[in-house]
Amino acid sequence: MSETSHAVPQLARSRALAQMALIIAASCWIILLILVKFLPDYAWLLHILMLAAEAGVVGGLADWYAITVLFRNPFGKMPLPRLLREHTEIIPRNKARIAESMGRFVQENFLSPDIVRQSLQRTDVTLMAGNWLAQPANAQQITDLFQQTAPRILDFFGQDTISEFMQKNIVQWAKNTDMHQLSSELIRAVLENDFHEDVLQRGLDTAHVWVKNNPEKARALASRMFNELGVGTLAWGAGLIGIDVQRRIINAFMQKVEQILENPEHPLRVGLEQQSQQLMLALRDPESAAAQQLNSTKNALLDSPAVVNFLTGAIVILRDAIKGDLQSEQSAIAHNLKTAIIRLGKNITTSQDVRRVLNREIEKLAVTFSTDYADKVIRYISQRIHEWDSREMIAKIESEVGGDLHMIRVNGVVVGAFIGLILGIIRALVENIPM
């Protein structure tokens, strides 16, 4: 249940309580007026109580008037002096000034760059986020939300109209985008980070271990290659005279792999890097043969309905597989996502360097946002308040603070009665002091 729904019954209770307090004070005053006539011997005491009741009525009525004129004119269409008329319906009359003041208040106290910077510097945002993410219940909450929303998003993009629209636009974008520059940058990133060395090393290690641990499969693979190349008969004939061609080729392959693994400066490695460097430089030039060949090949593939249909079908299969997994009770994707979220939270909390970098970037982003968009947010708030209907605005304000305002009326009756009681006692003491 929303806060507003709670505020409306509270407003009604507070208003009823204020009215009841005022009625009780007025009733007591009337009853005391009557009792004075019938109990003259106790007039001094009844006058004290009467003064308390009168003060309670005055306090309650004064507070009722003060609260009412904030929202509306309690006199209706009665002719009033200008002084009274201009000080009714205070909030509706000053709606524009309130809108500007609210916008200025939000800007000065919440969205100014200095306030944002100071707030973030006092708070380790990433530590709080890490601790929150590391809690299994919170990670499960994120996972559940992902499981609920992801299939809907996939269904949306799976609609024929949306799918065809995106396919046409993606294909057109890919056709209009030259891939040579992007490919050159990718090769440069691979070479500068020595990623190609790691891939080559791992590939050679894998091949070496596989051939060493699977000699029969290696011989079968070599035999198949010989047969497909049409030299199987030649290898069989060499075997008749005692030459195991397959074994020699496998051994030669193993020796070559071991040489490449042991020697980082092996000509094959050096040649591979040189060819990659040459390809990277060639792709930078849009007029080079490599760049034109890459772009023409890309366009030829995109112009092929078979290729586009294949890619579309692959995407559909992948989409259905992801959706089916997410909708199952034992979803592997959801389980892995939850584990990854918890691990991410723990890693963030234990790494001060990462948190320091993230906090600095969050601070820069927040300050940039407050600098560039604070005025837009303030204008939106002010404009929204300007657009409010006066009755709607009054209803919103009354629903939020009206309950407290009507409790002021109750306090007015109680405090007024108490002050009246004290004044009545003082007057009685003064009047009965012998001269």
TrEMBL record:
Record's keyword terms, sorted: Membrane, Transmembrane, Transmembrane helix
InterPro entries annotated for this entry?
Answer: DUF445 (IPR007383)
Extract the Pfam families matched here.
Answer: DUF445
Q: Which GO terms describe its cellular component?
A: plasma membrane
Q: Respond yes or no to whether keyword Transmembrane is given for this record.
A: yes
Protein's UniProt keywords contain Membrane? yes
Q: Which domain of life is it from?
A: Bacteria
Spans traversing the lipid bilayer: 20-39, 45-71, 410-430
This protein is called: DUF445 domain-containing protein
- Species of origin reads Alkanindiges illinoisensis
